[in-house]
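Below is a filled-in request sheet from our internal design queue. Each sheet records the structural input a requester submitted and the sequence that came back. We keep these sheets so that new team members can see what a complete request looks like end to end.

REQUESTER: design group, bay 2
PRIORITY: normal
MODE: inverse folding
CHAIN LENGTH: 270
BACKBONE (tokenized):
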């Protein structure tokens, strides 16, 4: 089991099954990542969702039992909910608990959500698992159509250089290869992170200054008060995304893309 999960992580497979076969129909689902919960909800299968993480903030899941966190799910709590299926997002930190669930006889489907294509695959494949394949395909199509509309309406002329920042200490920015970088490219902006290899890459302050972004877009945290977000960039405009949608690689990526467009155009949150 450990070797299988290690191969999953190393090869960045979009999907891996662990444990016994998934029953048909699936009536009870536990989600180990907020993005996966939101996929189940968007598929119209929220009545089958019986457990979520403590980080799930969708109002439709507010009354559901919590089964721990993304990195530290609680196998005993999950087992007590008698799921037919557990949905997971693979990470080195949660490998042990996820493998434990599979060993004790709970079917687990693990989905990588690092790129837009992987997110779309997950929406379609989870739709098939839950018996609503047409809805899964529709979610994929809706996201692609939304991206196409944004690309078609991107302003002509000079493209702004943007850094999409997910953390300041250390400085973590969206590289071009992950879903955040792909959506940033959809807006017509130039990613000032350049050719960073990782989807979410550490960047030195010196490198950020050399990159000379026109806009620094902050995602998932409040900008610091009383000091520059990134020292040495006095001319860069600082914007904060209006919602947490870009932290949830799932159906809300369309909302996250709209948030990016608004930030780049200087339409701050109210």
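RETURNED SEQUENCE:
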């Amino acid at each position: 089991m450990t070797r299988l999960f290690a191969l999953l992580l190393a090869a960045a497979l979009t999907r891996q099954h662990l444990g016994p076969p998934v029953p048909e129909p699936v009536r009870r689902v536990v989600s180990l990542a907020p993005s996966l919960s939101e996929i189940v909800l968007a598929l119209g299968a929220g009545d089958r969702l019986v457990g979520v993480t403590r980080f799930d903030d969708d109002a439709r899941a507010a009354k559901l039992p919590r089964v721990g966190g993304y990195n530290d799910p609680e196998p005993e709590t999950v087992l007590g909910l008698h799921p037919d299926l557990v949905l997971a997002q693979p990470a080195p930190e949660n490998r042990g608990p996820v493998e434990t669930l599979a060993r004790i006889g709970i079917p687990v489907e693990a989905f990588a959500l690092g790129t837009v294509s992987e997110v779309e695959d997950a929406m379609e494949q989870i739709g098939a698992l839950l018996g609503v394949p047409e809805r899964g395909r529709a979610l994929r199509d809706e996201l692609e159509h939304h991206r196409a509309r944004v690309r078609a309406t991107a302003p002509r002329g000079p493209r702004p250089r943007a850094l999409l920042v997910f953390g300041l200490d250390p400085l973590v920015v969206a590289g071009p290869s992950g879903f955040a970088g792909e959506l940033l490219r959809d807006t017509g902006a130039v990613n000032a992170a350049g050719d960073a290899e990782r989807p979410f890459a550490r960047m030195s302050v010196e490198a950020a200054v050399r990159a000379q972004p026109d806009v620094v877009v902050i995602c998932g945290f409040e900008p610091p008060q009383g000091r520059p977000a990134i020292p040495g960039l006095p001319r860069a405009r600082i914007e904060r995304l209006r919602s947490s949608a870009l932290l949830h690689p799932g159906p809300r990526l369309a909302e996250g893309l709209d948030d990016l467009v608004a930030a780049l155009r200087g339409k701050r949150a109210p």
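SHEET NOTES:
- The first strand starts at residue 15 and ends at 18.
- Residues 165 and 193 are 10 Å apart (CA to CA).
FILED BY: M.R.
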